[in-house]
Amino acid sequence: MKPLITALVDTYNHERYIEQALVSVLEQGFSAAELEVVVVDDGSTDKTPSIIQKFAPRVKHVRKQNGGQASAFNAGFAESRGEIIAILDGDDWWATKKLSTVVEALEQNPSVAAVGHGHFKYYEETNELQACVPPGRMLVNMETPCAVRSWPFLLMGALTVRRKVLDWILPIPEEMIFMADSAIQAAATIMGTLVLEEPLFYYRWHRRNLYAFEWAEGRNEGSLRRKAEMAELVYGGVSQKLLQLGVPAEQVSALLGDPWLDAKRSRLQMSGGKRIEAFQTEMQSFHRSFKNPSIAYRLYKYLVVAAATMIFPPRRFYKLRQWYAKHQLGRFRNRFLKEEAVPSKK
After folding, report:
1. pLDDT at residue 301, as a whole number
2. What pairs with residue 199 in β-bridges?
3. Contact 330, 324 (CB under 8 A)
4. Pairwise CA distance, residues 318 & 324, whole Å
């Protein structure tokens, strides 16, 4: 008999955290027949494997060579049997009744493919908790304006999907060593996700968390550079995957165009690149923001950006761009053009 739910936990060198994560899963109030627990250990070199073994046979331990998050998701899903898949990172943990709440929501809303919800940010260094919740219950799909802005409520600890979501989007390209959850978030958005107000998991911010590290004291420039480079790769890879699956290019662009452009800018600012890349990135951003600019403004934009990107290498160009925005120098542009450039609504 197949279980109703699979809790899919991915972990790598989480010896300080994995026990709390697994206890939070096993204390959800579901029997072994109802809840299958699959833990994918992505080649840990610390005590994580021995801690996971303490939970055997209740927990299925899948060990693999280190390959990153995408490979862990692919391996874990292949071992899962549930019709509902709830995903958790090994350094986070679930609140009590998380699973019963999301399962009930799926049963009451058969048309949605997934459920997300609010969460608590837990800052390890200060033991502070900060609630991150939506303004109310909402449906996130391709009709949602700027749908990607809802993804904080579709983090892996918050996202529970019907099996068909992963059947559709997996395998994820394994060069996505982290941020591979973006592919699952995109699939859930396209197929329709119900977001609940309740904060039902704890998202741990600590120095080994590459995403959260940007906001920590003493942030490491090398880690931030790696994050920017991987973000560009991931958004490009997910876009290509969705196109291959038959999602219209307009929908892919609407969903991922802005974060992909932001990732390109971050990479060019931190790692540098070719001048033509900076020019193309700024022109793509311009055409996304202004659907029907005047001829004068279009010529102005092309000439100024072309000149600036030819003169300055990308890292210098983006520093100047930040300085320009900080001092609100765009007001002089508008006076010169005798018009206010109005961005298009998205």
Report:
1. 85
2. 118
3. yes
4. 10
| Among the four given CATH numbers 3.30.420.10, 3.40.50.150, 3.50.50.60, 3.90.550.10, the one describing domain 5-213 | 3.90.550.10
Q: Is pLDDT of 217 > 80? A: no
Q: Where are the domains of the chain?
A: 5-213, 272-346
The one-letter code for the residue type at 216 is A
* Residue 163 burial (C-beta neighbours within 10 Å; 0-12, 13-18, 19+): middle
Segment 329-341, tens digit of pLDDT: 555 555 555 544 4
Q: Which of 341, 252, 336 is nearest to 291 (CA)?
A: 341
What pLDDT is attached to residue 11? Answer: 97
Burial class (CB in 10 A: 0-12, 13-18, 19+), 289: middle
Distance of alpha carbon 167 from alpha carbon 162, whole angstroms: 9
Pair of tokens at residue 139: 């449906």
Cα 128 to its chain centre, rounded Å, is 23
> Who contacts 291 (Cβ-Cβ below 8 Å, separation ≥6)?
344
pLDDT tens for each residue of 84-140: 999 999 999 999 999 999 999 999 999 999 999 999 999 998 999 999 999 999 999
